[in-house]
Amino acid sequence: MKIVVDANVPAAEACLGELGEVVRVPGREIEAATVRDADALVVRSITQVDASLIAEARAIGSPLRFVGTCTIGTDHVDEQALADHGIGFSSAPGCNAEAVVDYVLASLSTLAERQGWRLAERRVGIVGVGNVGGRLLGRLTAMSIDCLACDPPRVEAESIEAEGPEGLPGFHDLDTLIDECDVLCLHTPLVREGPHATHHLLDAQRIAALAPGTVLLNAGRGDCVDGRALRQRLAGQGDLTAVLDVWEHEPAIDAALADLAEIATPHVAGYSLDGKLRGTHQIYRALAHHVGLPARLTMDDLAPPPPVARLVLDSGLSPEEALRLCMRVVHDTRRDHDSLHREARRQGMAKGFDDCRARYPLRREFATLEIGLREGAREWAALLAGAGFRVDMA
Ligand SMILES: NC(=O)c1ccc[n+]([C@@H]2O[C@H](COP(=O)([O-])OP(=O)(O)OC[C@H]3O[C@@H](n4cnc5c(N)ncnc54)[C@H](O)[C@@H]3O)[C@@H](O)[C@H]2O)c1
Ligand SMILES: O=C(O)[C@H](O)[C@H](O)COP(=O)(O)O
Predict the structure, then answer these.
(1) What is the pLDDT of residues 362-391, one digit of tens each?
(2) Taking every annotated instance into account, which residue ranges of this chain make up the domain D-isomer specific 2-hydroxyacid dehydrogenase NAD-binding (predicted)?
(3) Is the N-terminal amide bond of 266 cis, ω within 30° of 0?
(4) 347 — phi, psi (to 5°)?
(5) Which of 41, 51, 211, 289 has the highest count of CB atoms within 10 angstroms of its CB?
(6) Which residue among the candidates 187, 267, 281, 337 is catalytic per the annotation?
(7) CA-to-CA separations, 47 to 29, 95, 167, 235, 312, in angstroms, rounded
(8) What is the tens place of the pLDDT at every residue in 205-250?
(9) Nearest to residue 322, comparing CAs of 262, 367, 382?
């Protein structure tokens, strides 16, 4: 079996190589001719697997029978076209959700430090309460931070009313979150049509309705926010703080908007090694199942030990300082912001954006760091455990 795999999929030889011959191709260069004699195609989000690619591939005799994307998002894949040609499909739901939550907490902690506020005194609105938003809600709630949630499709499907699921807070509409929250985090997929379409979910009118001082964080998909309207508000009034990981027109994103965002990163919120390996592993299992082969490798076979496994804390810090210190040992979104701006200046935006992603440094998840708390630091246990670290008494 020949498996064409995006060059940025880690561990493909070790994992997918068990099932067939792996041929690497840069994601932006994958086209119909690339899969002329391939049985399977494994992509990430930058490859548009659309109806024309599939139809052309079939027209030139491609035997393609499976497409996998090692990502959560699926808006780059025409699932109907695959089904119409009898091609199996799988994505990797939830694979990098923990990494995105790490990114959100690390970014908010940096903003709190820069702007002199405490997260404990802010109310956070979460839009899209699936694998990412649900985990974010869980961690913030465990850190005793006040949250409001918005997810109309879930409300409709699960008849959630005033009482939320699993003892979580009730769900509200987006305009209530806009009115009542200090921080608004978007974790919605890109859905172009239907009653719950998310294209420009935050349109000019909703952006205008955000109260001065609001923090807007988008780690869902760039097209969920009207970037032009956001740029105008930031440039004209300068009274919002934007944290943007995803953008319209990636990789050729709006450089002026990137300059105005307090934290601007090149779509790397989910880029932990753990998250990427989970993505590869989920697709390996799905392909093995599809072709009737055993999938022998486990995640433990793929993930190396973390470079920093344990940290012991003594007294002498505030809880916020202790939390920030632990987060920055694992992940510092200021570094991602600086890399994007540096590479955009050096190579131009589109090349710099892609280059930062292709050469992303090793990053692990908060859960890989064990924190030992000595006498005097033990009161931080609930906060640090709530944020996602493994905590014990040293
Ligand atoms: N920045 C990154 O690196 C990164 C990483 C992972 C995922 N993502 C993006 O985040 C999205 C969400 O990821 P997930 O794992 O939570 O997906 P998910 O499918 O588990 O959850 C998405 C949730 O959004 C809800 N939703 C859909 N339309 C909505 C609307 N109009 N208003 C409010 N909620 C709505 C859905 O009901 C669902 O509960 C992905 O589709 C992907 O596009 C980005
Ligand atoms: O949908 C996802 O899983 C994320 O957006 C993912 O991080 C995208 O990364 P890419 O496929 O572009 O490397």
Answers:
(1) 999 999 999 999 999 999 999 999 999 999
(2) 113-269
(3) no
(4) -120, 0
(5) 41
(6) 267
(7) 8, 18, 39, 33, 43
(8) 999 999 999 999 999 999 999 999 999 999 999 999 999 999 999 9
(9) 382
C-alpha 203/C-alpha 205 separation (Å) is 5
Return the axis-axis angle of helices 349-358 and 333-347, rounded to nearest 10°: 140
Measured CA to CA in angstroms, residue 101 lies from 185, 261, 336 at distances of 10, 19, 16
- Please report, in range form, the residues annotated as the binding site for NAD(+): 151, 188, 245, 270
**Per-residue confidence at 155, pLDDT binned at 50, 70, 90?**
confident
- Start-to-end Cα distance in the chain: 51
Task: Give tens-digit pLDDT for 99-121.
Answer: 999 999 999 999 999 999 999 99
Our measurement of the distance from residue 165's CA atom to the centroid of its chain's CA atoms, rounded to an integer in Å, reads: 23
Q: And the tokens for 96?
A: 């990098």
Considering only CA atoms, which of 20, 66, 60 is closest in space to residue 43? 66
d(CA 318, CA 316): 7
**Fold of the 310-392 domain:** Ribosomal Protein S8; Chain: A, domain 1 (3.30.1370)
Spell out where 2-45 has E strands: 2-6, 21-25, 40-43
Phi, psi of 68 (to 5 degrees): -125, 140
Classify domain 96-264 by CATH architecture: 3-Layer(aba) Sandwich (3.40)
Considering the candidates 221, 233, 357, 363, report the single residue annotated as catalytic.
221
> Do 126 and 103 form a contact (C-beta atoms < 8 A)?
no
Q: Which two tokens stand for residue 40?
A: 């399977």
Q: Which residues form ligand 1's pocket by a CB distance below 6 Å? A: 72-73, 94, 96-97, 100, 127-133, 150-154, 187-191, 196, 198, 201, 219-221, 245-246, 267, 269-270
Residue keyed to tokens 């974790």: 187
CB of 212 closer than 8 Å to CB of 237: yes
Please tell me if the domain spanning 2-91 has the same topology as the one spanning 310-392: no
Q: How far is the CA of 319 from the centre of ligand 1 (A)?
A: 31
Both tokens assigned to 388? 């996602």
Neighbouring CB atoms inside 10 A of 59's CB total 9
Is 46 near ligand 2, meaning CB less than 6 Å away?
yes
Q: Is 253 in the pocket of ligand 2 (CB under 6 A)?
A: no
